[in-house]
Structures are given as structure tokens and as C-alpha cells.
Amino acid sequence: MEDRVSETDLAEFDAGGDQQDKLFDVLSNQRRRVLLHSLQASQLPVSVGKLATKLATWEAQQPLSDRSGDDRTTIEMTLVHNHLPKMAEAELITYDNTEQRVALANQTDNVWVHLQTMTSS
Length: 121
Known about the structure:
Layout: H1 7-12, H2 17-27, H3 30-42, E1 46-47, H4 48-60, H5 72-89, E2 93-96, E3 101-104, H6 109-120
Antiparallel strand pairs: 1-3, 2-3
């Protein structure tokens, strides 16, 4: 079989760089994707506690094989110590650790393109 990708094609290919890698890393986690949808729907800053409750409710509705088994308190701890800082670093959200409030960042158009592509396939 003939290789149809030329050296020139590969040289011109844009793999997206570090920012693209961060975005894919953040979007690779199901909880983070659910959080983004939840924040998009609210359009206002939301408390971390409310987000944890929404995630726990969402997870309880999933098939048993897809559930993490985490309770609301454990989910809130993973948000505070893992998910929210990672999402803020990727500039997808604004996270006020002192006030425990989260909002969707202004520059998320690129994210919705990726999410729509992922959900349509």
C-alpha cells in the first residue's frame, strides 16, 4: 500500500501545541465535561457545593458501571483539589478559591467546538 502523506504535508500540519494538549487533557475527564455544561447552563457564578450536588445527582442517574461511587463530599473535594484548578489553569473557568465560586471563562468558543464534535460522533 502506498503512503499518501508527504513530508511537506507533515511539515505543514499544525498539531495545536501546548494549549491544545491542555484542552484535550481537561476534556478527557467526564466530570469536567459535565461541569462545563452545567456552568454554561447557569451563566452565573456557581458555588462549589452546588456543582458537587449537581455532579452527584448526575452520577446517580448513570448506569452502575459508569458510576464512581463517590458521595457528594468526596466529589466536592475532588473538585477543589483536582478538577477546578486544572480547568482554571486551562482558562476554561474562573475559580475563586476563597469564595468557593466558579464561572465559565469568556474565551470558551474553542471548547464548545470540541465538545460538539465529541458528542456528535
